[in-house]
Every structure is written in C-alpha cells, then in structure tokens.
C-alpha cells in the first residue's frame, strides 16, 4: 500500500455510532473532527455523544442482554469466529484505517489487525468452556455446585494506541460469557472501532449486544455514565493511572466489577551474561514499537556496567537504520506521536534528562520538517534515578539507558516505582532467570524476549498499574460471576 491507497470497501469507514444494530447520530447533531496525526488533515467526523445518548445505548444493551445471556455457548462461539474471519478478510482496509487515524506504519497496523482478530478466535474457543464446579459440603445431607453466569451489561473504555486490539481483547470475553457491551471508542482513533461494528453487523451479532459510541469533548461525561449507571455491572478500562483512579472512584457508587489496565514504567534489564544481540532485538521490539506508545514498552533500560558500552553502541547502530515518517509510506519504519501533547511530554523528558547529566547518544529533537507530531528516535545514556523518565511513563521513542553493577541493584532500581505492569530481563543463567522473574514487582515478565503479548497470555499489572487480566483463560473470569447453589437431599 502507498499514500494513494483507497479503501476497497468504503462501508468500513462509517461516520456514525452503532447502537442497537443501527447507525445513529448524537441526538444533538453535534460532531467532532478526527485528524491524521501524520498529515494533520481531517479524516472525517464522528458523533459527539453525550450522557443522554449513552444512556440510550445502555438501555438497548440491557434489553439485548436478557436474550443473549441465554444463547447457547456454541452459538456465541460461531458469532465470534465469524467476526474474526471477517477481520482477516478485510485486513488491508482495517490496517489502512488504523494507520490514518493512529499514525503507526502499515506493517504494524496489519500486525495489529491479525492480533485483534486472534482475540475473537481465542474467545470463540473459550465460550463453550466456562465451567462450574461441584464441591463436597461439610453437611453430608447437602450438595454444593457453582454456576458461572454473565455479569451483565459491560461498559468498555478503549485507548487509541491499539484502536482495534484493545477493543477485541475486551469484547471477545464479554460476548463469550454472554454479556452485552457499550464500547466508548477513543476520540483520537474512533474509526477502527466503528469498522469493527460494521463487521459485527455482518457477522450476525444480535442487535443491541455490541454498541459502539464516540465522543471527544463529552468524554468525561460519557465515562461518568458508564461508571455510575446502575445497569452497567462491569467496567473495563485501558488508559492512564490518574484516569483509572477517577473512574474507580466513580464506579464505587454502584459497586461494579472492574478490570483496569493502567500506566506502566517497564524496566528492561540486561545482565552481564546476556546475549547482547538477543537483547538488542528485544529492546527494539518493545521500546520503539509504534514509536514507544505502548504501556508495556521499556521505559528504563538497565544495563550491567561490564557490557554497557557494547550494548549502547549496538543499540545506536540499529536505531540509525530506522526511517521516521508518514505511516502510509512504504519506507517508514516509525510514525508520528498521536498529538502535540505527546510530543511535548517526550521533549520535556529528554531536556530534563540532559539538564541533569544524561548523554544524548542519538536523536533527541522534534522533526518539524515532517510535521508537528514527529519526534526523532532517541537514545539517552548515563541516566540516573532523579530524572523524570525514571518515575514517569514517557510514552514516546526514547530509550533511556541506566548503568548498574549488581543483580540486587538492578532489582531495586526496577521496583522503585509505584506502577508494575511489565518487566523484561536478559540472562543465560537459569537460576537468575527464576530469581529475577519472581523478584520483579510486575504483572508480566519477559525473559529473553521483548514480546509478551499473546491471546493465550494473561495481560495485566500490579500496584498502580491496575488489576484484572485480559486475554487467556483468565480473561473470561472478568465477565462472569460465580453463583453457589446449596442443595439439600
């Protein structure tokens, strides 16, 4: 594909919300514009839903839930599998939509579409495997069984960095369990969500089971309805820790079931016995993917002093090979940041580090000749703990390298943060692999790999990175309740 590519199927770029099986505008008629972060050109506009519009969507989801909860698991499985197949059949168009609204290169966008479809496939297989238990009662005249029941209508709030995959990772288990959903699409990148809605319609998902809504200026009001409305029984949110705290506080008013995947500050440790080539591939994969805009990307790269210089040299040599530009260009390896605020934060983090003694090994500046949202891939050396990057998530293309001398020091540095989503380390020592994997205060650990996302893997964090798990066999548990039945005989 090239910048001249046009959608093969224009119906995959709807500009209305999807509620109760129909395409609808906001009752007010208000709309907001969505821009391509690479070109700053308007893609199209979307409805500006408000609280009342959201309540209407919730009401339809509630009606649909009453019937959908009783559908046969195999029926739900076939619906999800058909939805997955339709995504793969339209992978080029879906990738194009991701690239123009998110900025990531087409190759990354295609990878995301396949990854997103894999969640529907995975949970289609889990739908028929939601098991209860039989338990021996203390009173021998009684018998105990447990039933797994769908929690109810779910409010799902998705981020912009993976505008397709973060939705399918939530919707897949919800539908597998028999729930209905109201999905708040990200204002920065809503069209992937709306394209998924179109494919849900084609897949035969019953009306009202999947509802996709959009809002920009009214995002806070819509979020408040989703977290406080008594009909919503479960909220899943992926985003920043401060917003997660706000939503959690709001949800306490009705005691909802929650799963939050929040901010990260991932350590990436390279021990003295690591295979440096493997470690370099790992750090490239998890630091610079979509220009560092992932919650699990390496934020603090801790390298043993004995291999520090070699690692830094190899990393800079690799980074120099990359091409920053418009994601639609065939030569681009890394696209823009999502908006000007993201660029400003990255710029501030780099300047703060340099001012406090960091050495700029590569990059370190904006790329205004490409557009206002571009920042060069950056490598900072000789980092120290008092720099902002050490305690704040950069969410941009900055590899910050910290030296360390001992395993104990590396673990202490890695755990010195209030969040704990992902962590990575590289070592050939099997004993060390077990020690460090258990010592890291994170929800997910990559050992000798920088890629940890898989539909079969439970995804989630500890500390202020949230709670609950997405994906894997544990993902369905977030959308069911356990009912105990005590039966006298």
From TrEMBL:
Alphabetically sorted, this entry's keywords are:
Oxidoreductase
Q: Which PROSITE patterns does this UniProt record tie to the protein? A: ALDEHYDE_DEHYDR_CYS (PS00070), ALDEHYDE_DEHYDR_GLU (PS00687)
Q: In which pathway does it act?
A: Amino-acid degradation; 4-aminobutanoate degradation
GO CC terms of this entry: cytoplasm
Q: Which SUPFAM superfamilies match?
A: ALDH-like
Q: What reaction(s) does this enzyme catalyze? A: succinate semialdehyde + NADP(+) + H2O = succinate + NADPH + 2 H(+); succinate semialdehyde + NAD(+) + H2O = succinate + NADH + 2 H(+)
Q: Name one GO molecular function term.
A: succinate-semialdehyde dehydrogenase (NAD+) activity
Broadest EC class assigned to this enzyme: oxidoreductase
EC numbers, comma separated: 1.2.1.16
Start and end residues of each Aldehyde dehydrogenase domain: 23-485
GO biological process entries: gamma-aminobutyric acid catabolic process
Q: What residues make up the catalytic site?
A: 261
Which PANTHER family is this protein grouped with? SUCCINATE-SEMIALDEHYDE DEHYDROGENASE, MITOCHONDRIAL (PTHR43353)
- What is stated as this protein's family in its record? Belongs to the aldehyde dehydrogenase family.
What is this protein identified as?
Succinate-semialdehyde dehydrogenase
Lineage at the top is:
Eukaryota, Fungi, Dikarya, Ascomycota, Pezizomycotina
